[in-house]
Amino acid sequence: MKNDSIEKRVILLAHYIIDSKDTVRGAAKKFNVSKSTVHKDVSERLKEVSPSLYEEVRKVLNENKAERHIRGGMATKLKYIKLNQYRKM
Fold first, then answer.
1. Within 10 Å of residue 41's Cβ, how many Cβ atoms?
2. Domain locations in the chain?
3. Which of 30, 62, 73, 78 has a Cα at 20 to 30 A from 87?
């Protein structure tokens, strides 16, 4: 019984990540589970449940990994823009 719910979650997570191109962190927040759970689900469990779906998810996660330094830089830029606006007040 428990394995069925885990497999359903794994497949739901995979489809969500593929459709939304969201990160592990974003998927964890959406499904109200930890990042570790999402990572284990899509990197280990999904491979056993659906290898073809695993390959699609892997592509999205690799793309996200390649872009994360850009997102981090943008977050830092926005932080300092807001900080400077606050100081001008």
1. 26
2. 2-88
3. 73
pLDDT along the chain (89 residues), means of 10: 81 96 94 95 94 95 87 87 79
Please name the residues in contact with 17: beta carbons below 8 A apart, sequence gap of 6 or more.
24, 27, 42, 57, 60, 61
Question: How far from chain centre, in Å, is Cα 43?
Answer: 12
CA distance 43 to 46: 6
Residue 36, token pair as written in the block: 């570790």
Q: How far apart are alpha carbons 43 and 57 in whole angstroms?
A: 9
pTM: 0.76
12: CB partners within 8 A, 6+ apart: 31
